[in-house]
Design brief:
This protein is an alpha/beta fold. About 45% of the residues lie in helices and about 20% in strands. The radius of gyration is 13 Å and the shape is globular. The two termini are about 20 Å apart.
Length: about 130
């Protein structure tokens, strides 16, 4: 049995969380593990799950309210030891510089485009697996 990867998805919008799940499917690529999701709708839930451990990749909605994923990304990169890679969902391509400021490992635009998203997520899972090996 192949191991699974745990992906934390933060958005206050349940439709955005669903877009992430649908774009990923059971696994974003054939050479990465199947994915299990932990969904969070609040910043406090994100921190609680990260403190608990076992998260392989975080997907954070940069457009979330009241706290956007960019600010949370920057916070967790500062505060979480061995912070998992972060895939940031941004509102427009012009916001890529903000993703860089937040120290996100990758960024894709909303609405979620399945092929682009799955490719970015698979890349982060591959990198995480390579670092763990």
């Amino acid at each position: 049995m192949q191991p699974t990867a745990t992906v934390l998805v933060y958005s206050d919008n349940s439709n955005t969380r669903e877009q992430v799940r649908m774009a990923t499917g059971r696994r974003p690529a054939t050479d990465v593990p199947q994915v299990e999701f932990i969904e969070c709708a609040t910043p406090a839930a994100v921190i609680k799950e990260l403190d608990r451990g076992g998260i392989d990749v975080c997907v954070l909605d940069g457009e979330a309210v009241p706290a956007g994923g960019m600010g949370i990304c920057r916070q967790i990169k500062d505060e979480i030891f061995n912070c998992p890679p972060v895939l940031l969902l941004i509102g427009r391509p012009q916001d890529a510089w903000l993703a860089t400021w937040s120290r996100a490992d990758a960024a894709v635009t909303l609405p979620v485009e399945p092929v682009e998203f799955a490719s970015a997520l698979a890349g982060l899972l591959r990198r995480k697996n390579a670092l763990s090996a």
